[in-house]
Structure formats: structure tokens, C-alpha cells
């Protein structure tokens, strides 16, 4: 087993307006030429014109957490799972412009043909949760499991919200990727092949799925802290656990609390509380419904006029749902939670800049995953796409 070392800090500095660069973390970008001003009144027209000039050569994907100004130009909107499927479904499109975050664009690159080029309009659009699992840390964890003689019976499962490196690790070690819409099926798949699961990097999705959908207990789960030797766990704890949960979380969904649920119920006894499975266990347990962003949208579509909904997910989506359903009362579960700051990095100026660069024959901010990582990550992604 490799000597345990204090993990080095990951560079996630937010670079102002996406300018400047940090090659180490791939955050930030120098935009060659001028990024249009956000106040430019011609931005919408410029985006329309550039998209029309590119025609079928470009396919724009938009995650549900994107701003309205960006969603307006998406050919398809979806949750992480649907967007991964869609990226693979358009081999004729020369360019995939991914309005989402870095790990989604990486997955699109892995799932598209070598001739297709994937563009992320602002490289500062990362994900703090994905940054919580670094390959070296995961390899150290696996070494610890090997040392204990339990790696052979452990199946690694990674949430889509992880780097291509981590997906490659999982593919190489017999595991599978999951999203919030298929986590139970991925865990079923894993437990058919092993006795325990190493779940990366979202402890909440792992715990919520294991306990609320798979019938495991909280005692079956242990929390592996990558900043501590052996995850801060004893050999006995690791050996006895069925779910080894990585200590990662979403900084947006992690902020909803049980008190938020109790408070909204006090104010509106008839309210339906609907949350994303990235929320903490006690929040999901206290909610009425839980599901991915696609599930949340479908639940609102099917809701009775006049019904009342408190939603625990990112604000752009909740605000769009409130506007789309004026006949229902749609509120945000917590008053002070903000947008996902990295999803919000993709704004109209960056989208216009990316599209106009493509029109000019230059490919900006291309996301490429190296061939070896891509091959193994693809194995793990294909296993997910083939889940029953
Ligand atoms: P889904 O798209 O799977 O609902 O996940 C939400 C999310 O946090 C994406 O970053
Ligand atoms: Fe990452 Fe959370 Fe933002 Fe999704 S909402 S991109 S998980 S920080």
C-alpha cells in the first residue's frame, strides 16, 4: 500500500468573468478576442444569427440548472442522464456546445465520435462536488481496501458528477456510473456483482439510495474521509460496511435543512415537499417526493391545479417551474439558497462568444479526455446506459 500523505489542496479559485487561466485545474479561460458585454442589447440576435449560420453542424445541450437566457438556445434540455444519452444520439453534429458543467462536457466527449468536438462555453463551469474526489485519493482508498482483502468484493460506483479520471478508475475496476435518475438500478447492478459498494463522490445520493430504496440501514454505511488516513475508519468498520460512502456533497443541495421542511409545513400544512436526492438524508426522509431534475419537472407537470409545492433544488429550475405553472403554488424550500455558481458561469456572453468562434472556424474551450481514460470511462458509462 502506498504511504498515506496529506492530500494537496485542489485549486478551485473562481476566475473573474472567466478570464485568466489556471491550467492545473482547467478552471478559467482566456477568451481570444472580446467576450461580448453582458449589457450588449444585440446578444440575443447575435446568438440566433450564429446558431442559424451553424445549422445542423451544432447541437446545443442545456442542463436544467442553466440560466433562462441560455436555455432559450438549447436544442435539448435535460438532467445529466438525458443529456448523456442525447450527446451520444447526434453523431452527425460536428460540434456539441454543452451548457452545463465540466464533468458533463467530459462525458459528452467520451460518448461522442472522435470527429465530434465538445465545447464548454466557460471553462470555469466546474462542480465543487466533482472536485471532492481526486484520482490519487481514490487510488489510496482502493489500496486500503486491497490491503484489507476486501477490494475483490467491492464494486465502485460513481455518480455522473465526477471527473473523467474517476469514471476511468471505476470502469477499470469493474464498476458503473450512475445519475440521480438511475442510482437504485446501478446499486442493484453492483450488489449482483459484489458484497459492498464504494460510492463516489456524493455521500447523500449514496446514503439516500441505499437506505431509502435498497433497504440497507444507516449502520450498513460508513463515511470515508479522503483527508484522513484510511478514511478515518477502522479495518473493522471498512470490512463490515456494505456501503462505503465518499465524503463529498453538493454545496447547493447540502444547504437544505430539516428545519426548512418543518418550517414550510408549519406555514402550509397542505404543501408537497419535493427534493433532489443530493439533499441530506434527514431532508429527503422528511420530504414527500424525491427525484432527479427530470423527475421534479414531471411531478410539477402532473400536479393538480391549486396544489402547493416547496422544492429543494437549484434556483434557476425552481424559478422556471414557478413561471411555467402559474396555476400552482411553487416555492423554493429555503429562502436564502443561491444558484449553483458554476452552472451560472455559462451566460449569454459566453454562449455568443462560443458560437461566433465556431462560425469563424475556431473551436473554443474544447473539452477532450485522453484516449486511455476515455476508453475505461466509456466502459463505466456504457454499463450505466445499458442498465435495465
Ligand atoms: P441531475 O441532472 O441528475 O438531476 O443532477 C443534478 C445536478 O446536480 C447536476 O449537477
Ligand atoms: Fe455540482 Fe451541485 Fe452545482 Fe450540480 S448543483 S453542478 S452537483 S455544485
Automatic annotation (TrEMBL):
An annotated Gene Ontology molecular function: 4 iron, 4 sulfur cluster binding
Give the CC-aspect GO terms.
cytosol
- Which enzyme type, at the first EC level? transferase
What does the Swiss-Prot or TrEMBL cofactor note state?
Answer: Binds 1 [4Fe-4S] cluster per subunit.
Please name the Pfam families in this protein's record.
NadA
Subcellular location(s): the record lists: Cytoplasm
Catalysis performed (reactions): iminosuccinate + dihydroxyacetone phosphate = quinolinate + phosphate + 2 H2O + H(+)
**Keywords assigned:** 4Fe-4S, Cytoplasm, Iron, Iron-sulfur, Metal-binding, Pyridine nucleotide biosynthesis, Transferase
Instruction: State if Cytoplasm is listed as a keyword.
Output: yes
State where iminosuccinate binds: 63, 80, 159-161, 180, 276-278, 293
Q: What EC number(s) are associated with this protein in UniProt? A: 2.5.1.72
Stored SUPFAM superfamilies: NadA-like
Identify the cofactor(s): [4Fe-4S] cluster
Q: What are the BP-aspect GO terms?
A: 'de novo' NAD+ biosynthetic process from L-aspartate
The record's comment on protein family reads: Belongs to the quinolinate synthase family. Type 3 subfamily.
Q: What is the protein name given in its UniProt record? A: Quinolinate synthase
Q: Which organism is it from?
A: Longispora fulva
Lineage, please? Bacteria, Bacillati, Actinomycetota, Actinomycetes, Micromonosporales
Q: Which gene encodes it?
A: nadA
